[in-house]
Write a structure and sequence with these properties.
Layout (H helix, E strand, L loop, with lengths): L5 H17 L5 H11 L2 E2 H8 L3 H13 L3 E6 L8 E6 L2
Antiparallel strand pairs: 1-3, 2-3
């Protein structure tokens, strides 16, 4: 079993701290502004724009819905199956 040198571990920790501070986690306001400027969007479209996990986006959208700032609605398409769910910011 090989051990990892202490200086390498410290280097990895410093790198992880730097990356963590560079990440920008969206706030409720960020998603609200995104919906205001882009119009109604699906969760998948929001994920593509922000590059964040679907569950994170969904948690923020639920908070906005509970604050009556966003509504959720579905549009059924011409094809059978589950309808697309859209999120729209209320002005």
């Amino acid at each position: 079993m090989a051990t990892i040198p202490k200086d390498q571990i410290e280097k990895e920790l410093r790198r992880d701290d730097r990356n963590e501070s560079e990440l920008q986690i969206p706030t409720d306001e960020y998603l609200y502004d995104l919906l205001i400027h882009n119009g109604p969007m699906t969760r998948g479209e929001i994920v593509k724009l922000t590059k964040l996990p679907r569950t994170t986006i969904y948690d923020y959208l639920i908070k906005l819905i509970l604050k009556d700032r966003v509504i959720r609605y579905s549009k059924s398409g011409k094809r059978p199956g589950r309808p697309k769910v859209y999120f729209k910011a209320l002005k």
